[in-house]
Design goal:
302 residues; mainly alpha
Length: 302
């Protein structure tokens, strides 16, 4: 039996992997250089400048700026606000994603639009909305004053403004994930006699856990770094209603640059930690996906 004179040579696996688009190598390296240069210029360089300015007068001045009572109050208020806003947005995000992805009802498109509303509204406008509603001359202001309830220029207003600007993050992570998964597994669990809570805890939640964690990370990062809406409703009262971003602004306006950059470096450090946690979550998710893809297919029942 004769063999062909010009057999087709297999393409090396490495060359296929490195040149999937068929473009020249210089295009790839040009794009990589542009991306790395952009990241260095607009991300790494400002981040290094923040820490350099914060430590310009030594570690002692840096620690003194963080030990100052107003700084501690701003740090504590920021953490308290995030601790309240993130769990509430977690409940809302799961409920909204469940309703949008698993059910068909009138007004579904309108509800999806409302979820995206904070992305299109300026945070400053969101703060003004709460002032219009709960301020001294707002719609509910006289009633609140009569019952000695303070919302604007107090912690409740800061929490409400933070919840408004951060509530889409968890829902927006879960909605496409739940829509892609469909409802087959939940329906199978219901047929087998599982209750609604059992279906949620044992079927739905394990399927969305990484998207949920990812959304919580993004929501928490935005809650701690929010400036515009909180600035409008806080009143900038030192030691009471200043979060970390507002405290940085006040210190910088008073030409206390070392103290301002010290608090800003703490915010930057929280952002870096958030990115590290996000990277770990993504790595763990990809690892589970690869492990699931390598599982042998189930044998059909005889």
């Amino acid at each position: 039996m004769s063999t062909p004179q010009n057999p087709v040579k297999p393409v090396p696996r490495r060359s296929v992997r490195n040149n999937t688009t068929g473009e020249p190598a210089w295009v790839k390296w040009t794009l990589i250089t542009i991306a790395l240069g952009f990241i260095f210029l607009f991300l790494l360089l400002p981040l290094a400048a923040v820490f350099t300015e914060a430590l310009r007068k030594g570690a002692g001045a840096y620690l003194e700026a963080l030990k100052e009572p107003d700084a501690w109050s701003a740090i504590r208020l920021t953490l308290i606000t995030a601790a309240i806003a993130v769990p509430l947005n977690l409940v809302f995000g799961v409920a909204a994603a469940w309703a949008i992805a698993k059910y068909e009802f009138r007004g579904k498109a309108f509800l999806t639009t409302l979820v995206d509303l904070p992305f299109s509204v300026s945070p400053v406008v969101a703060g003004l909305i709460y002032v219009l509603l709960f301020g001294a001359h707002g719609w509910f202001g006289p009633w609140l004053q009569a019952h000695d309830i303070k919302i604007i220029f107090a912690v409740p207003g800061i929490v409400l403004a933070t919840i408004f600007v951060t509530f889409p993050f968890i829902a927006r992570e879960l909605i496409p994930l739940m829509q892609a998964q469909g409802t087959e597994e939940e329906q199978a669990a219901m047929v087998l006699g599982a209750t609604g809570w059992q279906t949620f805890w044992h079927v739905t939640l394990p399927n969305i856990k990484w998207g949920l964690v990812y959304g919580v990370i993004l929501c928490n990062a935005r809650a701690m770094g929010e400036f515009g809406a909180v600035s409008v409703v806080s009143g900038h009262i030192r030691g009471q209603t200043n979060t970390m971003p507002l405290h940085v602004e006040i210190l910088y306006n008073e030409y206390q640059s070392v103290a301002a950059f010290a608090v800003a470096s703490l915010l930057a450090l929280l952002a870096v930690v958030t990115l590290l946690i996000k990277s770990v979550v993504e790595w763990q998710f990809e690892r589970e996906q690869k492990a699931a893809a390598q599982l042998p297919p189930e044998r059909p029942l005889a």
